[in-house]
Specification:
Layout lengths: L21 H18 L2 E6 L5 H10 L7 E7 L4 E6 L1 H6 L2 H16 L3 H15 L12
Parallel strand pairs: 1-2
Antiparallel strand pairs: 2-3
Helix pairs in contact: 1-5, 4-5
């Protein structure tokens, strides 16, 4: 199961009193797959409520298949909470500044009522910043 599959279902089966449509779920999965191919990192999105704040999100990250190379985006629309946590290897590619930029991108879309669009934009920012750089001329000065 890819890293994003288990977490795409909201905890309470609803987001802002409505469930994610199959089209939105498929769109999020497509976005995650593209981000993973682009960056070489694993991405997971959790929509719903969780307990213990950031510690709870870190526990969710630890429970994923590849936590060290995973970027977990947790969104609780009801409480207007967003957390982005990275595993040890993902943190090498994504610094706090990249995560802050993604968070700003997401929150502006969330404020406009576009949950899926905000997640899409945030994942795209993180994938771009986490992209593996091309090494040219390794054996030449």
């Amino acid at each position: 199961m890819p890293a994003g599959d288990e977490s795409l279902t909201p905890t309470d089966a609803s987001v802002s009193n409505e469930t994610l449509s199959p089209a939105h779920t498929a769109d999020l999965q497509r976005i995650i797959t593209h981000a993973e191919e682009q960056s070489g990192l694993a991405f997971s999105v959790f929509i719903g409520s969780w307990s213990d704040g950031r510690v709870g999100v870190l526990r969710k990250l630890a429970a994923l298949q590849q936590p060290e190379r995973t970027v977990l985006i947790a969104v609780n629309p009801a409480e207007r909470v967003l957390e982005i946590v990275t595993g040890r290897l993902a943190r090498i590619a994504l610094d706090d500044r990249a995560c802050e930029l993604a968070a700003m991108s997401m929150t502006s879309s969330f404020a406009a009522g576009d949950l899926v669009g905000g997640i899409r934009d945030g994942v795209a920012v993180l994938a771009e910043h986490g992209r593996r750089s091309t090494v040219l001329w390794v054996d030449q000065p």
